Amino acid sequence: MTRRFAIGFPLVVAVLACLSLYRVTLGFPLFYLALLTLMLFWVTQATSWNILSGYSGYFSFGQAAYVGIGAYSTAVLFGRHGVNFYVTILVAAGLSAVLALAVGAIAFRLRSLRGEIFALLTLAVPFILAALARINSSIDGGQGIIVSVPPFPAGLGLFQDFLYLLNLLVAAVAVLVAYLMRKSRFGWALAGVRDAEDVAEGLGVPTFRYKMLALLASAVIGGVGGSLFALQIGFVAVDSIFHLTVPLFVIVMSVLGGRTHWLGPVVGVVLVVLLQDRLTASGLGEWQLIVLGAVLVLLVLLAPEGVYARLRARPLVALVTAAVVAAAVWLPGEPLDAILVGLLAATAVALLPLRAAPPAPVVAEPAEQAAPAPVAPPAEPVGVGEVLVECRNVARYFGGVRALEDVSLTVREGEIVGLVGPNGSGKTTLVGLLSGSLRPTRGSIHVAGNDLAKLPPHRVAHAGVARTYQIPRPFTSMTVRDNVAMAIMFGRSPRSLATARRDAAGPLDVVGLGHLADAYPDKLNLHQRQLLEIARALAADPKVLLLDEALAGLNPAEIDNAVEVIRRVHRSGVSIVIVEHLLRVVNQLATRIVVLDRGTRLADGDPREVLTDPAVVRAYLGKRAHA
Ligand SMILES: Nc1ncnc2c1ncn2[C@@H]1O[C@H](COP(=O)(O)OP(=O)(O)OP(=O)(O)O)[C@@H](O)[C@H]1O
């Protein structure tokens, strides 16, 4: 936790609490308190949504399910049966958690339930709950339930004060949880899931666990907020609770404010609720969805990262603009108009294109690149030792396609195995099997004594396998340094974020990217992105590194540089399996070559013998060329 947050956050919460505790002394109107209560309700809901959907990229349309479970737990138990109100909050949290575990166990286990399919699944849940509530008379039965005022400490003032303080407490806890999650390994893991989930898993991130935790936290916060909402509206009915505006509002608020930051939803809530309130006050209430929709479209086009990120980039200008504009249009009797206009002006200023960024981190051409630092320790070539990888009679089918059939292969410590073969011969499939991202249809694979059939992909990384991708897949929201730090944080010997960031210099120096540590991947050329793939895989501390066409698309100078980097990685004690079409390169690097052809192993042995084997030449060049 930063010092600024440790001081600022309790201070803001205390000031907000004082608005109610000293309301009469301060002359703070009840109307404003009600508006703030509404904002706090939405802060809770939008933050709840953001913890899962903003952080991990799993867009949910099911927020109304938590609001519904919370509201009905309180309405039925407290409103109808007189159960202690605080107990009903716990029940709401528990039931929401159960729902989250059920949805997560299904959705996160199946790879096919991603993106829009996940969104559709979550959209269905509130509909089912609404139907259950409507037809079941012990829940609602279509009548609605009146929720009276529960007993509360007399010293708190009116019921509105009590409600406000309760909402403040829950919203503050929600924001605190979102902050702590974002700043911890948890937030990094979810950012990895958002950018490239299977890459994160392959680097050792237990993605299922982190997604479940995010869903659980999101559900509990949403459910507790829903419970308070029952008190706020006083009459709980299916149509007002399980309404589509709930997910729409939380999405608009979070996207508007910025969904990758813990404070984004809060900024979005303030803007949306104020806008909504002012439109209603000026008799334009029916326009609110149209205006909100237009604002969202505009912002998605102008600043998809959200308003908060833009405000942070120029805080002083935004603050001065907000203050000046608000003061200029301050209307006697209604300061809310002035505040809204001030905020909109600050938003507009924040959205102006930023001045050209300072000279981007120099993206040098390979020839001019800083000479890579020597690998520590620059070991002698490692002798061939124990068997690290053992594939026995492996087959892999995709439906009717036999990508691999009866392939056996061993990789020993210290080897560089060149895996070659014509297009479609099964090389990438074999890399997928060795890294645990694919399961064999038949046969067994052992890595360092571990049976991969028993391990999820992130545990395969911990067993000592790392891979690169033919088309580089960096975490685009992270700098080069943080891409590498991710692999260190979650790799075979996990470390804290601070240590991982410091240690990232090692793998970056090995590949010669140290001078680009603070650049974002979109500033790198193809060669540098491929080097980043190698640095990141190396950072996971593998025993075996699988390089899938790491040289594809490079020019001759870049290829020479990449070959040197691979040699350096090998000298540091990592065994390598390299998939490559350029036989010159394979010949230069490999200590052994395995040739695949139409999914079967055609040859396996010394590079010179294999590459002159007539069967191999025929497979590569065709019979006529061989002749
Ligand atoms: N996910 C998939 N679904 C269906 N078929 C697949 C899938 N992945 C691979 N295949 C098929 O399996 C066979 C082997 O593909 P693979 O990508 O492993 O070959 P490769 O040797 O890596 O090819 P290239 O050199 O072109 O990358 C091909 O016929 C391919 O079409």
Automatic annotation (TrEMBL):
The chain crosses the membrane at residues 30-52, 59-79, 85-110, 117-135, 162-181, 213-235, 241-257, 262-281, 287-304, 316-333. Residues 389-623 form the ABC transporter domain. Its main location: membrane. It comes from the Bacteria. It is a multi-pass membrane protein. Coiled coil: none annotated. Gene3D superfamilies: P-loop containing nucleotide triphosphate hydrolases. Keywords: ATP-binding, Cell membrane, Membrane, Nucleotide-binding, Transmembrane, Transmembrane helix, Transport. GO terms for molecular function: ATP binding. PROSITE patterns: ABC_TRANSPORTER_2 (PS50893), PROKAR_LIPOPROTEIN (PS51257). The keyword Ion transport does not apply. It holds the Pfam family BPD_transp_2. It is found in: Cell membrane. This is Branched-chain amino acid ABC transporter ATP-binding protein/permease.
